[in-house]
Amino acid sequence: MKDTRAFIYSSRFGDYTYGEAHPFKLLRYRLTFELINELGLLSNPATRVLEAAQAEEADLARFHRRDYLAVLREFSAAETPRANFLFGLGDLENPVFPGVYDWARLVCGGTLDAARLVADGGCRIAFHMAGGWHHAQASRASGFSYLNDAVIAIHALLERGLRVAYVDLDAHHGDGVQEAFYDNDQVLTISLHETGDDFFPHTGYVDELGCGCGYGYSVNVPLSRHCDDRLFLRAFNHIVPPLLSKFAPDVLLTQMGVDGLRTDPLTRLELTTAAYESCARWFRDSHLPWVVLGGGGYHKINVARTWTLLWGIIQGVELPDFLPKVFCGTISALGFPDYRLRDLPHQAQSDDFSRAEQALDANLEYLDRHLFPLHGIGP
After folding, report:
1. Considering the entire predicted model, what is its pTM?
2. What are residue 142's DSSP bridge partners?
3. CA pair distance 273, 62, nearest whole angstrom
4. Domain of residue 296, residue span
5. Which residues are marked as active site?
6. Short-list 252, 362, 328, 237, CA closest to 38
7. For residue 234, what are the CA distances in angstroms to 38, 220, 238, 369?
8. Neighbouring-strand partners of residue 50
């Protein structure tokens, strides 16, 4: 396999909007691209910069019901706002805006391109920041997600006879991907996320292990609020390396949502950019063919900083701790005065840490007893 990397992007990502009051801001993609470009991370001769293409409806129908796709397409072209709550369309969470179907197809097309490049051996790593819509169901929009690009791409890989490992680091449980492959032993899904006790999507408990031949191939590590880098990396290192080693996937697909950062407005984890950098280095050094998707993140500058650090690791470039001059001017005009590229180290308060640690201990013990033996992993 060629040691090249693909960066998939489109200026059309900025042609759409969920609405001014919605937390999902598409400006984050342009900011990430501008920061990556200013740092010279697209000039490596081993890097292919590719324009995302819209997915065909036949690709979408690998997973989504055609009646749902027809309604989404119809509403997207309507001149007046439409809603269908049976399909999860038109509420505050999943608004119907002009061109929403085209936008969703563009996201899915970029993820399919990334999967094909990696599967064909043209690139070992492909990064598509707009992907990672892990909540969408077969016939329902959910969690800002209209189409589940990861599920669609995994189905395309399965049709090639490939085994896929999906690792989700978003603060929200990857429920749509888990549900799609809950009874499938050719797809290993692992999700590290904030506990669903009082947090969307209220799923992803440690005892959700799959069903039928897929039992043992759905893995969840719910994390208590105030989990910091120490606990997050302990969970990651305890679960991800041994399971991927045993499963030996043909392709690794990761969802790298960064809403676990402690300054994200929607979540209650206390991670820093260092946690995401550490995980990214492990994925890179695993030498697995790797499809990298974006995901959540509701602080625009957090997203741009962390995904830039991720792309720097993919490129093998050590980046500075501070943001470059032009980008500082850009974010200053947006009202963001902090010019650090990397977060300063942070630890949760001792009482919060102790409670989060006790919960993690119990979850890891459960997985040690109930999951690891299924894969031949000893204590």
Report:
1. 0.98
2. 145
3. 35
4. 5-375
5. 135
6. 328
7. 34, 14, 6, 17
8. 8
For residue 338, name the pLDDT band (cuts at 50, 70, 90): confident
pLDDT tens digit sequence for 54-83: 999 999 999 999 999 999 999 999 988 899
State how far the Cα of 293 lies from the Cα of 209, in Å rounded to an integer.
24
Taking phi over 0 as left and psi of -120 to 50 as alpha, with beta for the rest, 99 belongs to left
232 CB neighbour count, 10 Å cutoff: 26
Which pLDDT belongs to residue 2? 67
Report how far Cα 305 is from the mean position of its chain's Cα atoms.
Answer: 15
> 367 near 242, Cβ under 8 Å?
no
Number of domains the chain is built from: 1
Task: Retrieve residue 10's tokens.
Answer: 């489109």
The CATH number assigned to the domain holding 159 equals 3.40.800.20
